[in-house]
Design goal:
Layout (H helix, E strand, L loop, with lengths): L1 H15 L6 E4 L7 E6 L7 E22 L2 E19 L4 E8 L5 E11 L1
Antiparallel strand pairs: 1-6, 2-5, 3-4, 3-5, 3-6
Length: 118
Amino acid sequence: MLVQIIFVFLIVIYSGCSNQNQQLYKVSNVSQTELIILSKKKEQETISSFEIKINGKIDGKAKIALLLNDGVYKTENISGNVNIKWGGDWYSDEIQIQYEPQSVNSGDIKLKYSFGSF
């Protein structure tokens, strides 16, 4: 009986931690500068964390920056295959990311993201 209770408890915990809040954003034109604004889902309550996976491929160089309080918090120089993961504590309902291509003509950049809430 105790094993069954523990099993049910683990299933409940796992389903509460799943990525049901995951969203997708695609950079519309990788050759153009873009201010990306990612927002929580409307049904989410108080935000306490975030996770972003940035994947894709570009044929040149670009810079992507996570903005916080009107300044750059974290930045990555990217080229070729892109595979970045950012995450941590976050207490805002949105995230701003600045994408700045330096010599990009074509490619594809996608951001899979989720906000964690209490």
